[in-house]
């Protein structure tokens, strides 16, 4: 019990940890609002306020986050030319997303003109979707490379602690990358809903489930080991 509490404290001390918790509030409230909208409009309105407040607070808390893309490229540009190119494209799209998200937040709280919100939302979502496509591609490439290494290790005649440790690392990395793929696909659906509104992506249930998949996959990836 104490270990879980300690891990929760560490998790919530991270910016990403708080973001995933508030994102959970945001999309749970969206689903509750949709569920009771027709039968209990008063309660639905309260959850709508919670959803909007959670979304705006997340945007405020992410101020300056677009700079992390530069740091990620500097520290881990990729092991091959292909992965380096994918990293540049992915992080460039994400930096556009975070940067214009600042203006979207300012327009929605009334600091900038409200009419800018739609334009900023489109640019931000377009950058987000652009980046996620390359993040997903990069993760699939790394998963494939991990499977090749795993088969080689399993096919070798060596039976040592080093081989066992390498296999554990490959499997752990694969789980983390699959979580990343799940989160990025879910966020890609949310971004498409902003870029090109449509009945499927913009449905409250699709958005709600996508938001929770993204939040909980991110929660898993950021939870202290």
From TrEMBL:
Q: Which residue ranges does UniProt annotate as crossing the membrane?
A: 120-143
Arranged from A to Z, the UniProt key words for this protein are: Membrane, Peroxisome, Peroxisome biogenesis, Transmembrane, Transmembrane helix
Q: Does the keyword ATP-binding apply?
A: no
Task: Report the locations given in the UniProt record.
Answer: Peroxisome membrane
Function, as annotated, reads: Involved in peroxisomal proliferation. Promotes peroxisomal duplication, aggregation or elongation without fission.
Protein family according to the UniProt entry? Belongs to the peroxin-11 family.
Q: How does it assemble?
A: Homooligomer. Interacts with ARC5 and FIS1B on peroxisomes.
What is the protein name for this chain? Answer: Peroxisomal membrane protein 11B
User: Species name for this entry?
Assistant: Xanthoceras sorbifolium
Q: What is the lineage of its organism?
A: Eukaryota, Viridiplantae, Streptophyta, Embryophyta, Tracheophyta
């Amino acid at each position: 019990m104490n270990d879980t509490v300690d891990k929760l404290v560490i998790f919530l001390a991270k910016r990403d940890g708080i973001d995933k918790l508030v994102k959970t509030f945001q999309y749970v409230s969206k689903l509750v609002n949709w569920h009771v909208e027709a039968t209990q409009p008063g309660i639905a309105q309260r959850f709508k306020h919670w959803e909007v407040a959670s979304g705006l607070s997340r945007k405020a808390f992410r101020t300056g986050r677009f700079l992390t893309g530069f740091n990620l490229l500097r520290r881990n540009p990729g092991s091959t030319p292909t992965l380096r190119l994918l990293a540049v494209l992915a992080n460039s799209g994400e930096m556009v997303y975070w940067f214009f998200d600042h203006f979207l937040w300012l327009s929605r709280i009334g600091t900038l003109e409200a009419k800018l919100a739609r334009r900023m939302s489109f640019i931000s979502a377009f950058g987000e979707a652009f980046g996620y496509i390359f993040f997903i591609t990069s993760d699939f490439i790394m998963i494939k490379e991990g499977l090749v290494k795993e088969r080689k290790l399993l096919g070798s005649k060596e039976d040592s602690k080093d081989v066992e440790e390498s296999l554990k690392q490959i499997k752990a990395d694969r789980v983390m990358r699959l979580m990343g793929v799940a989160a990025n696909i879910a966020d890609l659906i949310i971004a498409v809903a902003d870029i090109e509104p449509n009945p499927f992506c913009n449905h409250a249930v699709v958005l709600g489930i996508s938001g929770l998949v993204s939040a909980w996959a991110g929660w898993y990836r950021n939870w202290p080991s």
